[in-house]
Inverse folding.
RNA sequence: GGAGGGGUGGCAGAGCGGUUGAAUGCGGCGGUCUUGAAAACCGCUGGCCCGCAAGGGCUCGUGGGUUCGAAUCCCACCCCCUCCGCCA
């Protein structure tokens, strides 16, 4: 969410940012509503001030007592209240309209973000590792897994639907090993581990920006009020501090959690239909930070490093790209994507996305910090989130990059303590 | 699920129809004193919104209602605590 005052006082900057993002958000409509809203507030408050004064006078008169004069004033207040309730109803709808609009405006890209139209304009930042050259025909993970008897896509469909995964034996163990290795690595590097609910309420999903605009992407329960299956642990980790003011001395806060993630993938029909790259339920270890405005960009860089560190431990080649303005997610001010080398795609595939949301989520979720030495009152924190990493895609990358000619898969060194075996065969 | 109790400022805790946006204590900030600190003493000290400002409005779990006027009365809902039941 953007600050309404900022939007009206810097409308040119906002207009330019929306254009860079190719957003169709109606800035002029908002400015009109906002102006109407402020006029109405002035009117309503003037009437309220008169009503409050008159009521106070009535109190005095009743004591003296001057009941006749009090009666006349009572009538005045009654008529003010009638006028007021009509104005108030109007103001309520206008304020709701303004807020609804504000909840659907995307974040402003940071000034350092390259301007571009879509994913083709995302500059590559760096590469690590060299994609392996196979001296045999490498298989895709959707063949390796079933051939080894460790992934069963067909029975997953029977149990649930297409785009679900069933793993067994060393496949299940590989999934769990990757999760544990990621969590152990991040907690050793200063992240606090959490174990959050994976059903969350509408306020929580609104705080991070999934609602109201992206409800179609979410699984929703039929309870009243409804709950939503979290699409990422970012949602719950960030909302831990919703409606709170944290002490500046505690910042930056670095959190991590493993959760299953649930996505409808409503608009993805036909994309990545094979294997476990795009599924309705997948595991992810998430990184979330709360930082001051002064350090948030540095924290983004170090979060990116932390995500890449996992791939380096697993010896998986990757590259980092920066998202251009046109490809930036709704709540992000700046985003790096980490892409892992996948032989089956003969290319790099997203495995982590690290974003600095600036104060966009903090304003929605009302997450402030206090710095008695620096300033009076509270300021919004900056929130950041990144995958560290997507577990299913990591497993797929391991299977494909570490496969052998005989169909077996060598376990990366870093996972052997967790797996208990050197080779999956 | 049943019965009872309760939700007030950073915390504890008064108020129970009008000058209470809220006593008091703790905490926090500033000052006096002190070589420094502690103690003591003095002063200040919730949030949000509109406004250039002066000022004004809203806010005592949430939403409605009664009243000229509600933290205070009524209704509904939410949450917390205790006991009982059920349960992994």
């Amino acid at each position: 969410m953007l600050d309404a005052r900022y939007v009206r006082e810097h409308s040119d900057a906002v207009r330019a940012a929306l254009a860079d993002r190719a957003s169709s958000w109606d800035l002029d409509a908002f400015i009109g509503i906002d102006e109407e809203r402020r006029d109405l507030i002035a009117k309503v408050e003037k009437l309220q001030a008169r009503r409050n004064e008159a009521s106070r006078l009535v109190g005095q008169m009743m004591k003296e007592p001057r009941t006749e004069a009090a009666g006349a004033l009572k009538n005045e207040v009654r008529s003010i209240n009638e006028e007021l309730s009509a104005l108030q109803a109007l103001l309520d709808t206008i304020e709701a309209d303004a807020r609804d609009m504000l909840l659907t405006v995307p974040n402003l890209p940071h000034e350092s973000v390259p301007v571009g139209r879509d994913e083709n304009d995302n500059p590559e930042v760096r590469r690590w590792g060299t994609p392996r050259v196979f001296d045999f025909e490498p298989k895709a993970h959707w063949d390796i897994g079933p051939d080894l008897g460790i992934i069963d896509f067909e029975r997953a469909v029977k149990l649930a639907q297409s785009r679900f995964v069933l793993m067994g034996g060393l496949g299940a163990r590989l999934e769990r090993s990757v999760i544990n290795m990621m969590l152990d690595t991040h907690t050793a590097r200063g992240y606090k581990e959490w174990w959050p609910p994976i059903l969350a309420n509408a306020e929580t999903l609104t705080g991070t920006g999934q609602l109201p605009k992206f409800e179609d992407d979410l699984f929703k329960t039929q309870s009243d009020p409804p709950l939503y299956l979290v699409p990422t642990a970012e949602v719950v980790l960030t909302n831990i501090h919703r409606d709170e003011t944290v002490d500046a001395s505690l910042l930056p806060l670095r959190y991590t959690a493993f959760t299953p993630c649930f996505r409808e993938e409503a608009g993805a029909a036909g994309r990545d239909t094979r294997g476990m790259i795009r599924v309705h339920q997948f595991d992810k270890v998430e990184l979330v930070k709360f930082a001051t405005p002064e350090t948030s960009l540095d924290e983004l860089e170090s979060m990116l490093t932390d995500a890449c560190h996992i791939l380096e431990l697993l010896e998986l080649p990757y590259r980092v790209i920066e998202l251009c303005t046109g490809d930036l997610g709704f709540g992000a001010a700046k985003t790096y994507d980490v892409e892992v080398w996948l032989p089956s795609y003969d290319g790099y595939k997203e495995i982590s996305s690290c974003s600095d949301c600036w104060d966009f989520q903090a304003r929605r979720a009302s997450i402030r910090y206090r710095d008695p030495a620096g300033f009076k009152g509270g300021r919004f924190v900056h929130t950041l989130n990144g995958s560290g990493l997507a577990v299913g895609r990591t497993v797929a990358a391991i299977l494909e990059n570490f496969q052998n000619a005989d169909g077996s898969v060598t376990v990366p060194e870093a996972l052997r303590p967790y797996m208990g075996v050197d080779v999956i065969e």
